[in-house]
Design goal:
By secondary structure, the chain is of the alpha/beta class. Helices cover about 30% and strands about 25% of the residues.
Length: about 260
């Protein structure tokens, strides 16, 4: 449908077409990790460009290098401001932001910086697709409020094991924040059974009522996208959406006579 709409707009003599794709599908197929597999992320990028899009706006790519798959400008937005606003208002005590794996470490550090929290990481091994084995938790989590952050939740296995690992190591409570809620397979059952305090996701993907449960909170990215679109079409900088407002004021310079 996206490709057809882009083509229709171009054939109607649109001066510029911006494709807003909150969740970029096939983002995990960004390389050949085994023989005879396609690089789906690159293929989808080629299709969007071939259809006639002049620009792409998306939120939290699975890998940042996906931006390089497009031959047109890409505005890669982050859902971090939406999450940090929500958790800052909750004023959680003794907060530590936990990365569920090494790949999520950079994202988790950004959350920790914005929330003024400490940082921890879970060292894990994945013996097979969608199967994760938690090995160790690096960082202090005992007696702390933990916030697990990731870009997406698919089958929920990684997050469920991570939550249990933190509780087993003495965490007081565990919150989970993920941008894209795919919730495939037995994800809802796993997350419902996990000892987490709250699962916070965004509406980049429509979540049917059948996949929602009491401890799930869905945040809207509508304001983030609307502001980004406004900045793009007024030729303003999109990066101002993510500048930290709580920067420390630099001391005034004193001129010596």
């Amino acid at each position: 449908e996206l490709l057809l709409l882009v083509d229709a707009a171009k054939r109607a003599s649109a001066a510029r077409v911006t494709a807003v794709v909150p969740y970029f599908g096939y983002g995990r197929q960004d390389r050949k990790d085994q023989p005879r597999v396609s690089i789906g992320a690159k293929l989808v990028a080629n299709l969007i460009v071939a259809a006639g899009a002049d620009r792409v706006v998306s939120i939290d790519f699975h890998q940042h290098q996906i931006q390089g798959f497009f031959d047109i400008p890409v505005d890669h937005l982050y859902a971090a401001p939406v999450f940090t606003k929500y958790f800052r208002e909750k004023n959680l005590p003794n907060l530590v932001v936990v990365a569920p794996d090494v790949g999520s470490a950079k994202m988790a550090r950004g959350f920790a910086k914005r929330l003024g929290a400490t940082f921890a990481i879970i060292d894990k091994r994945r013996p097979a697709a969608n199967v994760a084995e938690v090995l160790n938790v690096v960082g202090e989590v005992e007696g702390r409020t933990c916030l697990l952050t990731d870009d997406m939740i698919d089958t929920g296995g990684t997050i469920a094991q991570a939550v249990q690992a933190l509780i087993d190591r003495g965490a007081d409570s565990v919150y989970v924040a993920a941008t894209h809620a795919l919730l495939s397979g037995e994800a809802v059952a796993r997350l419902s059974a996990a000892p987490l305090r709250e699962l916070v996701v965004t509406n980049t993907i429509q979540i049917p009522d059948a996949k929602r449960f009491d401890r799930m909170k869905v945040l809207s990215v509508a304001n983030l996208l609307s502001r980004a679109i406004s900045y793009i079409h007024s030729n303003a900088s999109v990066s101002q959406l993510f500048e930290l407002k709580e920067r420390r004021k630099r001391p005034a310079k004193v001129a010596l006579a």
